[in-house]
Amino acid sequence: METGTEQDKILDLDVRDIPHNDRHALIFRLFSELGAGQALRIKVDHDPVHLLQHMKHEGLPVDASAYDVRMDEEGNFLATFRKESEKREDVTFTSFDKERSYLDERFSPINVHNGPGYRVILTYIKAGQFIPVHSPGVDLVYAVFRGSGFAYVDGKKRKISPGDILVVSAGKSRGIEAETDMEALHIVSPIPDESDHEEVMRKLSEKKFL
Hints:
The protein is α+β, with helices and mostly antiparallel strands. The protein folds into two domains: 2-82, TusA-like domain (Translation Initiation Factor IF3, 2-Layer Sandwich), CATH 3.30.110.40; 96-206, Jelly Rolls, CATH 2.60.120. The strands form three sheets. A five-stranded mixed sheet has the order 1-2-3-5-4, with helices on one face. Strands 6-7-14-9-12 form a five-stranded antiparallel sheet, with no helix packed on it. A four-stranded antiparallel sheet has the order 8-13-10-11. The termini are far apart. The chain has four helices and 14 strands. Helix content is 18%, strand content 38%.
């Protein structure tokens, strides 16, 4: 159900009966389809504030300051995620120190810029964590800033350390395994779609690297 004018439209979504494994993909897709300044209001049985960070990790233009959550008469949570209303800047100035955010359960990709046909990500991987080996339809540039580990590319294993740059063409298998806490500049082109992420998310849920 949609409410409000076209500019401040709110799209309502009840996710209580949607399987947990399918919720985020649906939420991200619907949020991406919203116009600037519009919002997605989710009905769920818990406060989904964790989605704000997850949306940022996915590079979605969510306005964190506009996040609102309330309880209805049945005790359900109604959480509103509003899309940024201002056009994104053509120039991004940031740093590894400013964006640093490690996750306990998996590697942490922080989207810092979307350009015409490419995405720039700062990737933080704790020692022992990994980006599963996968074969997406995107080109990759991976430049190590801090830490060390191993890159698995097209069936070959290579040691990578600060200063190393890895370039992989679309369709070639690639994966990263951190030996120590690792931070890297991660550029992909074109911008990945849901099918490009499917193998990564499946292997992460199964705790499989290869």
